[in-house]
Design a protein that fits this description.
With about 80 residues, the chain is mainly α. It is about 75% helix and about 0% strand.
Length: about 80
């Protein structure tokens, strides 16, 4: 994937993670994109290692990882 694709996937994954958590997050738009990219990279890779290379299913792992990263980040940031 190219850089533009990572940004698009990261944005989608980050937004879905924010919507699913439904809490007050101190993360702005760029933070959402960065957390989404990290979640997509980490969660997608772990999901493929555990469940094999199944097309389209790595999104689940990406979103779960982004939700976990977002929860950790919101706990560490002062309000």
């Amino acid at each position: 994937m190219g850089p533009l694709e990572w940004i698009v996937v990261g944005t989608i994954v980050g937004l879905l993670a924010r919507l699913m958590l439904r809490s007050a997050n101190p993360v702005g738009c760029l933070g959402t994109i960065f957390i989404g990219i990290a979640g997509a990279a980490i969660g997608g890779r772990v999901w493929e290692e555990v469940f094999g290379n199944q097309k389209g299913v790595a999104w689940i792992g990406s979103i779960l990882a982004a939700m976990l990263l977002l929860a950790i980040f919101s706990r560490l940031m002062p309000r």
